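Appendix C. Worked example: Tryptophan synthase subunit alpha
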Amino acid sequence: MSEAVPRRASLEVLRAEAADELAVLIQERLLSGEDPWDFMEDLPSVDELVVYLLRADNIAANDGVRPNATRNYRVMRQIALEYPELTPAVWRLLGVETRHRKWDTTVADVS
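Step 2, the predicted output written as structure tokens:
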């Protein structure tokens, strides 16, 4: 993302990690008795989860300080620049497209 945050891995590896994480989330919710019709659309896509993982790496590299709105935009834009295939997911998470998911950064407090 910035000079302080080295590129983590190839996009294929990041997507594989995110798919594994998503599978675990789904399994946990199913095992707790939740109906998949109630929660599946609330979960992030694999690419959205990759963007969040990269954003979390940036936050960790910044001593755990959560970004304000301006810095969040810059971090997300840098992710899109470094991983062009993630650009649609970045813009969705930034709220360029209308969203309804509960975990969306336009709904969640990122300040």
